[in-house]
Amino acid sequence: MNRVPCMRAAVEVIASEGVDTVFGIPGAAILPFYAALLDSPIRHITVRHEEGGTHAADGWARATGNVGICVGTSGPAGTNMITGLYTALADSIPIICVTGQAERAKLHQEAFQAVDIVEIAKPVTKWAVQVKESAQVPWVFREAFRVARSGRPGPVLIDLPIDVQRGTCLYDPALDGPLPVEVPQPRQQAVQAAIEMLLAAERPLILAGGGVIIAEAADELRALAAHLQVPVQVTLMGKGAFPEDDPLFAGMAGLQTQTRWGNAAFLESDLVLAVGARFGDRHTGDLETYRRGRRFIHVDIEPTQIGKVFEPDLGVVGHARPVLAAMAAEAQVRTRRRKPGKWVKRVGELRRSLPRRDDFEEVPIKPPRVYRELNEFYGPETTFVTAIGLYQIWSGQFQRTYLPRHYLVCGQAGPLGWEVPAAIGVKTAHPDRQVVVVAGDYSFQFLMEEIAVAAQYNIPFVIVMVNNEYLGLIRQAEIPYDMNYAVDLHYGEGGIDHVKLMDAFGCPARRVEAPGDIRDALAWATAESERQRLPVLVEVMVEREANAAMGPSLDAIKEFEPLPELVSAIDWSD
């Protein structure tokens, strides 16, 4: 066994786990780690803000299914990472954040940039640990990958005091390798019970959550649905788990991101098989309405998720892929492959009779028209990245998806600014993919400095900014309060010109103000992005007062109503 610098061992572990790119910012307290990176095959991309680094690692992880890595120094570097850790925890994304730290002997003396980042990070990680001895380094890193991947995936933070980083350890990479990750198998009795319930139901639905994508279980999902002819809905995190052009696709139910016909189909269902879904409040709305008239089977890899929001009629613990495979096998034993019945035809009727308009010709541009153009211009292989706000809600309502890991969205935490650094991670992971960011004007400004990263490293993608010059979602929520307060972002004289801003980064940009010009702008941006190997912006100026159709009709409310009560119910009729 050879004695080597312990940071070299750490980097050997990272490389052996299949990570080829890390995102970070060097600093004095993490330089031994960077010295080890220098001679490794791992590519380092220097971000402009540690939060941006975590989101880039997050995007890389979502696109690859592997563990993303972000690195920073001590003190504020770690605290800047907290939002990214929370985002990854909320959406079950495996990332590892590595932070530098002051010497162990100085930690109690309020040393420069010394903060107890482990205690700060514990609520937003699966595991936060400070390495106390150099000999622990390779084994802590190895365990970090196992924890990040295991069960419900999520983030880990490793804090490295500078004196620990300078140490050595006994390590031979030829004798080491990734730790096994358990893939929990379902109990056959539970699988049989689930199939019996599906066969007994008259109007069953399968609800595919983000867990189906994480588990790489899309094929198993399609096999089960096709054999039993059960329509499939998706959650926002599950978009891409089932192709939206499949006859069995049943839309999306929800309070915000939803389809009218998806809500209607859900209300008519009598049984829901939910796989890898959390029953988040933006999906369920009022639980009494959501649950009334139907039974639920809840499949999840994390046992404590079952019954957390409401008690299902049947809980099945297991990894989504073997669970769905076992259900498909059991279904094949129980019955021949079914033909489309009355229920499938009814869902098709709802789809045809309850569409939303997206063919508006008006100026200012109505937001649905933007998503119509995106759907028609870009093919199914395009990866879309979007964050939080009205533009995300419109995206969830109107954008069509066909493939897993091709529609990436920060679902539960919803940090503004996520989309640009996440797109950097996605494009770094898959250089040959067409990557399109759908952003709002305000969200773009949160981490717009990361455009410099994409420009520096020639990471090309297209940014489609839906600009309503408002904090649109907050303005819409303020309506029942009869106010329009602190949400105006009008960029008149002295405001931000996003086209000029992109020019300052050395990147092309174009502003669009008429619906007929959107298609040409997308074609121009796509070509320029690849030709110049740069991010390119298409800023689409949309109607300022446009609202998203969600929950109760907010426009119709004239009297004050407390916001928690306002958002507690779904307007199923849309």
TrEMBL record:
Q: Show the NCBIfam families listed in the entry.
A: PRK11269.1 (NF008431)
This entry's Enzyme Commission designation comes to 4.1.1.47
One Gene Ontology cellular component term attached to this UniProt record is:
acetolactate synthase complex
Q: Where is the Thiamine pyrophosphate enzyme TPP-binding domain?
A: 388-540
This protein's superkingdom?
A: Bacteria
The UniProt keywords, alphabetically, are: Lyase, Thiamine pyrophosphate
Provide the transmembrane region boundaries.
Answer: none
First-tier enzyme category under EC: lyase
Q: What is this protein called?
A: Tartronate-semialdehyde synthase
Q: Name one GO biological process term.
A: isoleucine biosynthetic process
- Catalytic reaction list: 2 pyruvate + H(+) = (2S)-2-acetolactate + CO2
Q: Where is the Thiamine pyrophosphate enzyme central domain?
A: 191-326
Family the entry assigns: Belongs to the TPP enzyme family.
SUPFAM superfamilies according to UniProt: DHS-like NAD/FAD-binding domain, Thiamin diphosphate-binding fold (THDP-binding)
- Domain named Thiamine pyrophosphate enzyme N-terminal TPP-binding: residues: 9-119
Classification via InterPro entries: DHS-like_NAD/FAD-binding_dom (IPR029035), THDP-binding (IPR029061), Thiamin_PyroP_enz_cen_dom (IPR012000), Thiamin_PyroP_enz_TPP-bd_dom (IPR012001), TPP_enz (IPR045229), TPP_enzyme_TPP-bd (IPR011766)
In alphabetical order, the GO MF annotations are:
acetolactate synthase activity; flavin adenine dinucleotide binding; magnesium ion binding; tartronate-semialdehyde synthase activity; thiamine pyrophosphate binding
